[in-house]
Amino acid sequence: MDCYTANWNPLGDSAFYRKYELYSMDWDLKEELRDCLVAAAPYGGPIALLRNPWRKEKAASVRPVLDIYSASGMPLASLLWKSGPVVSLGWSAEEELLCVQEDGAVLVYGLHGDFRRHFSMGNEVLQNRVLDARIFHTEFGSGVAILTGAHRFTLSANVGDLKLRRMPEVPGLQSAPSCWTVLCQDRVAHILLAVGPDLYLLDHAACSAVTPPGLAPGVSSFLQMAVSFTYRHLALFTDTGYIWMGTASLKEKLCEFNCNIRAPPKQMVCEEIFKIASMAPGALLLEAQKEYEKESQKADEYLREIQELGQLTQAVQQCIEAAGHEHQPDMQKSLLRAASFGKCFLDRFPPDSFVHMCQDLRVLNAVRDYHIGIPLTYSQYKQLTIQVLLDRLVLRRLYPLAIQICEYLRLPEVQGVSRILAHWACYKVQQKDVSDEDVARAINQKLGDTPGVSYSDIAARAYGCGRTELAIKLLEYEPRSGEQVPLLLKMKRSKLALSKAIESGDTDLVFTVLLHLKNELNRGDFFMTLRNQPMALSLYRQFCKHQELETLKDLYNQDDNHQELGSFHIRASYAAEERIEGRVAALQTAADAFYKAKNEFAAKATEDQMRLLRLQRRLEDELGGQFLDLSLHDTVTTLILGGHNKRAEQLARDFRIPDKRLWWLKLTALADLEDWEELEKFSKSKKSPIGYLPFVEICMKQHNKYEAKKYASRVGPEQKVKALLLVGDVAQAADVAIEHRNEAELSLVLSHCTGATDGATADKIQRARAQAQKK
Amino acid sequence: MAAHLSYGRVNLNVLREAVRRELREFLDKCAGSKAIVWDEYLTGPFGLIAQYSLLKEHEVEKMFTLKGNRLPAADVKNIIFFVRPRLELMDIIAENVLSEDRRGPTRDFHILFVPRRSLLCEQRLKDLGVLGSFIHREEYSLDLIPFDGDLLSMESEGAFKECYLEGDQTSLYHAAKGLMTLQALYGTIPQIFGKGECARQVANMMIRMKREFTGSQNSIFPVFDNLLLLDRNVDLLTPLATQLTYEGLIDEIYGIQNSYVKLPPEKFAPKKQGDGGKDLPTEAKKLQLNSAEELYAEIRDKNFNAVGSVLSKKAKIISAAFEERHNAKTVGEIKQFVSQLPHMQAARGSLANRTSIAELIKDVTTSEDFFDKLTVEQEFMSGIDTDKVNNYIEDCIAQKHSLIKVLRLVCLQSVCNSGLKQKVLDYYKREILQTYGYEHILTLHNLEKAGLLKPQTGGRNNYPTIRKTLRLWMDDVNEQNPTDISYVYSGYAPLSVRLAQLLSRPGWRSIEEVLRILPGPHFEERQPLPTGLQKKRQPGENRVTLIFFLGGVTFAEIAALRFLSQLEDGGTEYVIATTKLMNGTSWIEALMEKPF
């Protein structure tokens, strides 16, 4: 057994630790590390080295050089530092390298030494220079804290969303603090600093003195301090060689010891030491399995021992877990084999934990590989999540490995393969030495219609790199026009955007492009563009109808659409014009347009309307009353009702009202007036073109049976029965119907035979019917 | 509450629940008390989705109608605008928000676009300087609203005019979106058929949208077998004719809005003796019309002439049931009788309402003018005297009958004659302009643009060919026990429904010639299904066809489709969707233009 734990060293009474070399670094360092600025990213991240950081000579050979290595020492990038002197280096949570310059400018580089952006820590920092800087990580992202030459602190808790906070002054601080660090409590970043024997906590509002509980007396100065990665624990190192460890809230002491070293350590690391659980049952199981492999009966003994203690399940779990924390594949295998062996003797051991551990270890071993160089521990991996690990692989341009992992873990395409392919494509578009065609083709070949891939995102990246043509080519593959169009607009390809919008059928999108185009192009070009796009043109017309009437007219004019122009002016004559002259003028324009449209009917009708308007105006002047906007029919009616029969006649003649309608009109008007005398005169003026039944009907409507009867006798034979029934002469109606030998008429009369008086009539009809049937 | 939606072959309550859920989720996003400011047009359709009680459960305390100036005072945390994406409404909203800002304590403003968020509108809000005032700006994709167990409508009033007159395809886009929503809930529809330009475009958009969603494979077993997209302008004739089913006539005479009808109250006065009818109610009687009422479901699709006998039969059954109480001797029997009373009383109430409505309708249908009008319509549809000026129409104009009635008739004649002779057309137009006013020249232009009114070109009348091939006119119609869809118009079989019927059996290949005469392309598209979702039909199992009328559908057409669904050997059941439930009157009205 001891062969497994040979490299473990005791730490205190109950804990052990081990230290082993992950990689023999591949880098070819010429300088001592202590001459460099070094920053290693947490979670097996990259390492940045800035050589000769303090040299200021102009000579290229001695200029500072920034090197970036993977955790295994594989060179990722190397560049000459051409900017100002760097005070501090650090990695953000997104694995971006933050380089804090003496002047307070922070330069941000990617993993591959690609410059991303820069920002400044403010004027105060610029003036007083940077004395010291720290990069720290919080749950919101990564922050930068600066100590300026004026001994003031400035910090930004999240460089992704830069908000500078200048911390309050520390009273009496004349020189740099002996040590300081950033604490993060209750989601707020604080600064803990030591000035001689005093500790101060700075938050954004105040500076307060603090004392760690249970601090041994006699401390005259704090030389170093360190916080744990989680900001939960704090360690302080004093000039007496004493170390205080406690919670970062400074409320509780955890332990202390004296290491009897007076000189300040170069660096102090505070780790939460991972405790390996008692290996007892698991260890036994491991042993049992080994014996089993040796075909020794000892296997049975060990197994029995565990089973007797009832700890087999626990033993299997321990082996699985332990495997996770091992870095050596051989060791992992042994432990897993043991777990698998133990599992055979258990009835119902859920297989998930075993399977998942196997999967996780395969992934971990793959990324820990020397060539990849991400030495994650199992716990770190679990904290990081697979998604973030994939992101980091993508960041290192390790696309094939990332895809293999996705496929191996069977991640859903949208979260897995598609996402990585999309990243790959975004990288691909930045390869400036490859032609647009080739890049677009390569991307489409690889991505095809993979679900969840956003071609517009890739295109946006291409556009960001100044490759507009490539972006357009890529957008061709984007099926969602809602995504295509805004980007095309941004790239000032409005006309292309327009045709894409039209293709989609989404009218709102078309409108959006149209309004863009309208601002972008001069009017002539805009109209020309519309002309080639009938759908867009119709939509724009709709828009103008409600928003810009004048433009609508121009559009019709451009298209020589005289018919619509005519209608436009007709509308205007009602809506826009108040004065008769204006209305008539609008109508004249309309009529002209209709002539041009070869719509003679509409032109003539419009001219009639002009004539009528003028006439109505004259009637109002001469007779008073309301005539304007009455229809011709109603104008004539109004004249008759007002007793102006002559004028009515004249108007009817002028406008050639057909006889039939004129008769209906007069009949209705005179009946309304109850001018029975005039009505009778009218009925005798000539033979009625509408017959006399309407006369009967209208008299009955006015409840004048007497007058109605006068006309009933004049009704022609076809409608006689109807007329007689209307005036209530059932008997005579029966006679006529019998005479006509018309079955329909007979039934009609019969249905009117109600009450006793009509009894005889009914009989008469029945007899006639019977007779007709005999024949 | 909406149980009737789940009685059909396809459970449309699933859709209703889905849109209700979406609404609740939105309301809950705006935490705290709320006031809703309504685009008035939306209240009707929303009523079919959610009653006030649902809104109240989610802390909606006040409701206002959207109008200019400032909002009425309301002590609420959130003010939510429910609006269609229209620019003119954005102007009003901006006015509201700005005056509210001046008023004092700040509220949270939100905006819910129905059915779609609009960049154009948001740009307008931005230009007016209020876009930033809205915390949530979201869309509520209420495209297809379930009206009944087999009926969906977008209730988009302007759809026909926009599509066919103004070249604005917005409602087609919404229709396609609505169909995508349906497919998300009821599975991919494997086959799409269509006839007409708009149908083609909707199908294209659907195919395109499907490509946009390639990521999410639809794994729902398809409920619909086919989709049939039909342009209204393929069949301009049907809506012009007077519908003769019970529901159709209610709609023709009183107008059904969002499944409600308002009726003159006189006939519904509670009959009390000695009252002398003094206190007649003056407020219109509002009734909801859907299959939730058993009796209504039974009679609504019948020819009106067959309704009377059903009603009297029902009356006899119900009074017989009430007579039962005299036979009830034992306590048990009486108890049983009493337990049935509520149901019987409801049935009696329903019967009374139906009878009253039938009487109201009968007053109209027995009038001489109704008879004359119907005669003319039927003459046109059967091809008699369609090429000369019609006396009845002339008289209607001379007597200044309603313009819509006149236009319906003239258009009907034009459609039944493949356009009118120029002389006849001009005569009608002149008569109309002189009688009703020259401003109606704009309306006439619109009708001509829509193809409802046109001069005959090429001197050829295609209508007889269409009529004969599709058997649109049936002389031997049985109104009581129909054997053919032509019963819904007492002789005329709606062209649109005939197309659906022929598609189902024997297929459109048999009528290629007519399809070529009718406007627009006809087409078929397949949407491949993964093998696991392919349907194996049981022998005798009916197919389900979703038929979508782009530009509106009438109740008579719906009745005809229901008739086909119920045919024992029909083989196809229909679910009907449309941009708008309409009739000839509302249709023409939407096409009319009144400049003042």
From TrEMBL, chain B:
<keyword id="KW-0968">Cytoplasmic vesicle</keyword>
<keyword id="KW-0458">Lysosome</keyword>
<dbReference type="GO" id="GO:0030136">
    <property type="term" value="C:clathrin-coated vesicle"/>
</dbReference>
<dbReference type="InterPro" id="IPR001619">
    <property type="entry name" value="Sec1-like"/>
</dbReference>
<keyword id="KW-0653">Protein transport</keyword>
<keyword id="KW-0472">Membrane</keyword>
<dbReference type="InterPro" id="IPR036045">
    <property type="entry name" value="Sec1-like_sf"/>
</dbReference>
<keyword id="KW-0813">Transport</keyword>
<dbReference type="GO" id="GO:0015031">
    <property type="term" value="P:protein transport"/>
</dbReference>
<keyword id="KW-0967">Endosome</keyword>
<dbReference type="GO" id="GO:0031902">
    <property type="term" value="C:late endosome membrane"/>
</dbReference>
<comment type="function">
    <text>Plays a role in vesicle-mediated protein trafficking to lysosomal compartments including the endocytic membrane transport and autophagic pathways. Believed to act as a core component of the putative HOPS and CORVET endosomal tethering complexes which are proposed to be involved in the Rab5-to-Rab7 endosome conversion probably implicating MON1A/B, and via binding SNAREs and SNARE complexes to mediate tethering and docking events during SNARE-mediated membrane fusion.</text>
</comment>
<dbReference type="GO" id="GO:0016192">
    <property type="term" value="P:vesicle-mediated transport"/>
</dbReference>
<dbReference type="GO" id="GO:0005769">
    <property type="term" value="C:early endosome"/>
</dbReference>
<dbReference type="GO" id="GO:0005776">
    <property type="term" value="C:autophagosome"/>
</dbReference>
<dbReference type="InterPro" id="IPR043155">
    <property type="entry name" value="VPS33_dom3b"/>
</dbReference>
<comment type="similarity">
    <text>Belongs to the STXBP/unc-18/SEC1 family.</text>
</comment>
<dbReference type="InterPro" id="IPR027482">
    <property type="entry name" value="Sec1-like_dom2"/>
</dbReference>
<dbReference type="Pfam" id="PF00995">
    <property type="entry name" value="Sec1"/>
</dbReference>
<dbReference type="InterPro" id="IPR043154">
    <property type="entry name" value="Sec-1-like_dom1"/>
</dbReference>
<dbReference type="GO" id="GO:0005765">
    <property type="term" value="C:lysosomal membrane"/>
</dbReference>
<protein>
    <recommendedName>
        <fullName>Vacuolar protein sorting-associated protein 33A</fullName>
    </recommendedName>
</protein>
